[in-house]
């Protein structure tokens, strides 16, 4: 039992240590070169959202993608519509921690962010845990799901 606990602790702590190094800006122990590609793509996505670049986002977001916000679930056209209409103005995402896991041609990007936005004309600066799921389609990563969970404790 103790050996199983120690193994579980080690396998959990190792990815967290690599994530913390990535978040701190130092070199991480990236075994898979796709990891850096997905981290860069996730960061670029936040910039496109802040710029309301719906053309670039529509290329990135799969047409079947779902977007889970705190109060609703949206389709790709609905998410793009919210961004374009400025119902939610994404200002900036300060990434505190980020990690990537792969399952075949699927990548799961988990991050802790401080999101700075304007929602219904109100400033909304909130800490979130974000999960992005990407799938490789025709040699390109497509975002299949984006889920926000508000954190009760700041990063």
TrEMBL record:
**Residues annotated as domain DUF4440:** 39-143
Sorted alphabetically, which keywords does the UniProt record give?
A: Signal
Signal peptide positions are: 1-20
- Superkingdom in the source lineage: Bacteria
Please give the Pfam families that the UniProt record associates with this protein.
Answer: DUF4440 (PF14534)
Matches recorded under InterPro entries: DUF4440, NTF2-like_dom_sf
**SUPFAM superfamilies the record matches:** NTF2-like
Q: What is this protein called?
A: DUF4440 domain-containing protein
State the organism named in the record: Sphingomonas kyeonggiensis
